[in-house]
Every structure is written in structure tokens, then in C-alpha cells.
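WARN no homologs supplied; continuing
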Amino acid sequence: MSAGTDLASAAKLSPVVGQSVYLGRIDYGVAWKLQQLAVEQRQLGQIPDTLLLCEHSDVITVGRRQTGLGNVLDRRFPVFEIERGGDVTYHGPGQLVGYPIVALRPSEDPAQPFGEQDLHAFLRALEEGLIRLCVDCGIASDRKPRYTGVWTADLRWKLASLGVAVRRWVTSHGFALNVTTDLTRFFAINPCGMQAEVMSSLLQLGAQRDGQPVTLELLLEPCARAIGDALGRRLPLRSLAESGLGPLLDEARLRPELPRLTSDQDRLA
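OK structure emitted
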């Protein structure tokens, strides 16, 4: 996807109005359950397209790629096996995580029957939004051939990881952008099958927003806007109360998903 082209316009579809919601720091198992509940509600048309923004405590997630568990080197953090595509990644404090719960639409043009229902195009759109966000913070960024994610323009450092799932054409999972992340945490894994040394963060590279060093909070609205633009949607930031997601979050907290492995279980094995 070239700069300035969004997912909806590429598929010749009208823009969609949705919402973004910041959940703060939230346990991974709660966020995963919330995504499942939100996907069901989106399929039923009970909620609009929604970008969930959050931060997690230290956790490792493993996607559907068969090599994933083999790239977990140190299981001192909880490990979740999940349904997204991709390999293994780390989430933790200082990382802006986004989960787009988006209904992908078929095209209105018979010549382009797939419309938004092209997961490669969806991933490229997420990358495009994050690239725009990084550039807006003063960090020239790009894609790296044969790799999913966002890198510095010289392709030396990786700033964001992506992996999505789709069910009945509603997406879940999404992206993790290193803002002020403690990069030593990545040494618990081979991130996406690569060496941990390739990972960097916006703060480490000197990124600024409004004349200040970047923080996660400073990027919430710009991220919602950049991802929305790239997806051909307007996703204004709303409070949890305004979003209507409160009951779903309460249910997710009562019935969170559990990790496959934890450090305590490993020590007892």
C-alpha cells in the first residue's frame, strides 16, 4: 500500500465511523477475552468498528507459526498460545498495543470482489498507520521486505510487531509499538524468530511529540487517528463509559483467558 492510500479507498468503499478506547494497563488474559467478546458483538452489529488501545504487564504470546514455542528462551513471563498469525512476541510496560475489532467489507465494485477482505492488505494498512505515526514523531520508518512489521528507514531496527486473526470477517489482535519499552525484556525470546538485538523503541531513537520525549499517553490520539486513516475509518478516542464496552470488560475480568505456561509451572515441571 502506497503512502496516502487507505484500505477502504483502495477497495473503493465509503469511510466508516467507529471508535478507539484506551484501557490502560490490563492483564493479557482479560484483553484476549475482551477481544473475543467484542468480535461477537461486532459480528452482530452491536458495537462499531473499535480500536482497543492498551498496555500489558510482562507477557509472551505465541501465534500459529509452528516454530513459535521454540523461540521462547526464558519462561519467566506468562506464555499464551493464541490464534493470531505470526511467531512469538513480547508485550510489556511502555509498549502501545492496539487491537482493531474491524468488520472487513466486500467491495462494491464487481471488478474488486474482495474489497477489504484481503488480510495482506489489512496488515499493510496497519503498517502504514504505524509508519505515519513514527514519522510524525521524527523517526523515519518503513517496511522490510519479507517481514511483517515496522522498521526504521535504514531497516536496522524493528519498532513494531503485527499479527492478526479474523473470524467471519471481523478482525482481532493487531500491533505492538515499542514506545518506552525496556528492550532487555526481548531477550526472553527470539522475537518473530529474530535476534532480540534488532528491537528498538521510539524513546531510544530520540522520538518526540509536541516538543517532549514520547510517552505512551502522548501517542494515544495520534495513534487512533493514524490507524483510522490507514484503515479508511474515523476512530475518535472515547472513554470506556462512552464506548459501551464496560459490560464486556466486566465479563472479561470475571472470565479471563489463562496462559498456557507460567514461570512457576515451569519450575515445578
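The longest helix spans residues 119-136.
OK
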